[in-house]
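TA notes, week 10

Several of you asked for a full example with nothing omitted. So below is the full record: structure tokens for the whole chain, then the designed sequence directly under it. When grading your own attempts, check the secondary structure regions first.
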């Protein structure tokens, strides 16, 4: 019995394309510390103010589901990861449960397809607690294998953001990708 490798490849591509055609909704969880620009990123993606933004105190208190009619994307906006271990554990538990709920539903349109972990690139810092959180999350997430993408927000300087991206890449955090973004135009005051 011989196997036609070309036919196997064609059959695999057909199966993949069928799955993609049946996917009507992409679901992304957005996480990160308070004030890193999660809500601004979300609003930029939707091109509409769906996530409340603010200066000072944290705005998002619990995970919120954000979507628009006729837009094939749902974003789960999480509470900011404050410095306390209790809040970090609470947010991680909520994320893991949301992922598991999607998996157990056996509906690709309810499954979580990736997690964006946001870090403020302008700060040039990733704290030890963030590294620990990411490592712990990816370990707990092994079963469901939801890809984690680090999003460097507030990337005002491409050069600095690229250097920071390389630094984080060298930490070997078991993430799918590290991307650099500037979700909102940055205005420079003439008064400076």
């Amino acid at each position: 019995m011989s196997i036609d490798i070309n036919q196997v490849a064609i059959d695999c591509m057909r199966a993949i394309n069928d799955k993609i055609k049946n996917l009507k909704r992409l679901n992304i969880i957005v996480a990160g510390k308070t004030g890193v620009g999660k809500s601004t990123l979300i609003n930029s993606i939707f091109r509409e103010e769906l996530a409340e933004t603010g200066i000072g105190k944290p705005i998002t208190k619990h995970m919120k589901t954000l979507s628009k009619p006729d837009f094939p994307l749902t974003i789960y906006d999480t509470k900011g990861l404050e410095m306390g271990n209790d809040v970090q554990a609470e947010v991680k538990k909520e994320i893991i449960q949301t992922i598991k709920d999607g998996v157990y539903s056996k509906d690709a349109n309810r499954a979580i397809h990736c997690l964006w972990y946001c870090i403020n690139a302008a700060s040039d810092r990733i704290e030890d607690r963030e590294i620990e959180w990411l490592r712990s999350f990816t370990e707990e997430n092994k079963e469901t294998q939801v890809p984690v993408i680090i999003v460097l927000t507030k990337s005002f300087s491409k050069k600095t953001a690229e250097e920071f991206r390389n630094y984080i890449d060298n930490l070997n955090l078991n993430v799918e990708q590290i991307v650099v973004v500037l979700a909102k135009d940055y205005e420079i005051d003439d008064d400076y």
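The CA atoms of residues 20 and 110 lie 14 Å apart. Use that as a sanity check on your answer.
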